Amino acid sequence: MSLTARYFGVSIDKDIWLLAFATITTLDLAIWGPINETFRTKFVFLKEKENDEYAIRKTQSLLFYFICFSVLGIVIIVLFNAFFAQIIAPDYNESQLGILQKMLVYIAPALLFNQLMQIGISILNAYEIFFVAEISSFFSNILNIVLLMLFVNQFGIYALAISYYISTLLLIFFILFYFYRKKIPLFKYRWNFKFDGFKMFFLFAIPFFLPYFFGQINTLLEKIFAAELGTGSVSILDFSNRVPMLLYSIILSVVTTIVVPTLSKYYIRSEKENFNIEFKKVFRLGILLIGLIIGFLMGGASAVVDFLYDKGSISQEQLTAISEMTVLYAVALIGLFSYILFGMSLLASEKHKIYALMGMLTQILVVVLNFFCRPLLGIYTFPISIAVAHIFFAFLMSREYPFKRELKLELFKYILFILVLSIIMFCAGKYIIIDNSLLKMACMGLLLSISAFGLSIVLKIEERKIALKTIKSKIKNKH
Fold this sequence. Notes:
Number of domains: 2
Structural class: mainly alpha
Shape: globular
Distance between the termini: 39 Å
Number of helices: 18
Oligomer: single chain
Largest sheet: none
Helix content: over 70%
Number of strands: 0
């Protein structure tokens, strides 16, 4: 993101890349997102109730038709690129539309590559292999950065597409390598070309297609609404949500890869107490980590934004807007995390239809809030609408939690922790004036650590003891 700020800034080229990429990912998630989200749960059920070979053969069928339909989607986008460009950017002039059409053609194959990557990661997760994708992603992202630096002068904005493809192909190679290394028998059995496996996963995911459709429409509408606010608004939106979402994705990857298979297993075995213990542990830890993200950005958002994006291509006014929006997106993470985790609990306990309904209504509420509040709140509408809608429906989903009578989250204590920590860090950020961005971030990080530790003692937060125990064991191991 720092490099794209340096090379492209807040510009029409960057807006075009974001609109094209958002269109492809919107179509991808609208078509395949529901199956991706439910795959792990269904696969675990098949393994537990039938056997390993049965689950693998159904997955082979799913993969074959994934590839067929993804290729068909790519052909449609390439043939009708002008139609798609006109729909997503009706206010663009002829020259801008021409660039957008070309970008849509170049990025269309991402429909296939992204899906191969997602289903590969899901299969690894289903076999309780959780960190291969993260390690592989780390190296592929390093390569992405290097390639962007190499190609940007020659290819301009198209360098983003080139670096994306090469790094994604590397990630797919890593996934296949670990299939071989961990002896996952995907290619062991004769390939299943029948429609039965695809049909089984598709039917299981049907309740999620409406919420995913509305969710992806919402994502695209957000970009379109932002584009109407003026040139560069789409880029500001993208720059401002990247830091909170990057940190959040680390937390979310753990939740979605580990929690769903684990909760599903406990639910199938009717282990109510273990189900609640696992949920409570992850929920509290996630809320605490998000509290640390919010606290840090309350005090250091301007330093982070200056360090990443102040490359001479973005005005000070735009940097201030990005900084303020970054904090709002960080606060919205509480609603997003609560929504996702309660949704995962419903998914693991075979209440996927309720989760799907709540998901659809959440996205509708976000769209409605964006439409009506945009004239009043401008670009700040987008993070606020996400926060309000997801907190509201997370609360409604918590009422459907399978063992809610026995669940004691002690949520008030953790919200108080976040609130007090945020106030301390906000005041510190206002009154501690340090011109050097790195030095200010270091100062805010130190203050955050001290404040969080002190508050955890005062509020008697149990996770403090777990953290201290882990640190002590690490120190002992080193010695």
